Every structure is written in structure tokens, then in C-alpha cells.
Amino acid sequence: MDPASILGLAIAFGGLLLGITVEGGSLRSMWQFSAALIVFGGTYGAAIGCTNIGVFLRSPANAIKAIMGRTPNRVALIKQMVELATRARKEGLLALEPELENIENSTLRKALQLVIDGLDPETVREMMETQLAETRAKAKEDAQFFVTWGGLGPTLGVTGTVMGLVHMMEQLENPADMGPAIAAAFCATLYGVATANVVFIPIGKKLMSLADEEHKVGEMIVEGVCAIQEGASPVAVRQRLSAYLSEKQAAQLEGQGSEELRLAA
Prior knowledge:
Blueprint: H1 3-21, H2 33-49, H3 53-68, H4 74-91, H5 106-116, H6 121-169, H7 175-229, H8 234-241, H9 247-254, H10 258-264
């Protein structure tokens, strides 16, 4: 679980709810079923119309991923590749085949499988870079669905408000009903603007961020696997992949098992 997503949504919704109640407002008055139906149904349908069925079917899982998903642990992956390099140096590349079933990262597992199958380093790199590019493009498309959804929210909110005002104008002979009707109409704009900027656009941006991070980690994995295939020492693999780490992560990696790596080299 990514604490930033949970914390951000909690603060955003907490601020909205507190802002409503602090001046004596009622949360019940903010709920208007017809406005919600117009805004949420309309924006969702319009967003679906802007994409393909595959993106639509993946959207629930992608929303969960944006909130609950975590980026790959770069330090842990480098440690794993250093261990694989150690074994490859001692026993050869074919000795890595039993390790495949213990590797959780699909990119690392795929790259190692290509190496074990005997493909040359250039071919392995080209195939993995193509796969990473396709995965990134798919992830960006999934993210754009939510950004589009959020972009449609305010417009559909205004549409709902106009529809509510039209309905209100039909009740001019009953002035007592005009106040609630106007309030209900403007709830549509509230729903559209609030959900767009608090929910849908942040989800889309988070998915884009996750896609970029997963792509960078994928590049790191390809670099590490190619180094293993070239017969680089565990120390050389670690040093080459340290370029993908922040200073804090590099210090963490340096402090974990450096003595073992020297012995393995």
C-alpha cells in the first residue's frame, strides 16, 4: 500500500467535509441523487466513449492500483541480481533456471528466461526494451482514461446544474420550492469539480507516475541481466546498478552485504 495516496485522499476529503460542516452546513444537504446520476453516469459514459473496451475493463483494477499499489523496491531487486550474478559466476548461466520460480518480478523473470534460452545480449536487450515500451504505453493509456474522466467532470457538472435550473424555472409558481431546487442544481457542479480534482485526475496522475517508475526499474533490470550475461562480477553488477539509486538508497545498498560481495568477487 502506498501511504501517500491514502494520506492525500484522506486530507482532501477531510478538508472538504470539514469545510462543509464548520460553518454549520449539513452533509445530508450535499447529497442529491439526480445530480450524482447525471455527473457520475455522464462522465463515466463519456470517458468510456473516448477509449477502448480493454481500458474500460481494466479501470476498476487500475483505480485500486493507484491507491494501493507500490513501486518496485530497487534496492531489493539489485540485491537479488547481485546474488544471481554470484551464482552465475560460480555455476554458469544455466544454474539460474531453478531460480526463475522464486522471482516475483515479471520483468526480471522474463529477461533471465531469455538469457537462459541462449539469446545473445543484443537480442535480449532489444526484446526487453520493446516489451518495456509496450507496457509503458498501455499503462499511459490506462492513466489517460482517468485524466479524461476528470476533465469531463466539471463540464458535466455544469450540464447538471443547467438541467436543474431549467427544472427550477418550471416551479416559479411555488417560490418555496425554488431554494431547494437551486441548491440541488448546484450540487451537480460541486460533484463534477470536486471529484475531478480530488479523485479522478489524481488517480490518473498517480498511474502515470507508477508507469514511469516501473519503466525506469525495468531499464535497471535489463541493464543488470545483461551484465550478468556478460559475466560481470557481483561487485561490478552492484556498482553499475547503483546509478539507478538515490543517495539514500545507494548508502542502504552499500551497507547491506558489502563484505559478502567482496568475498564473492
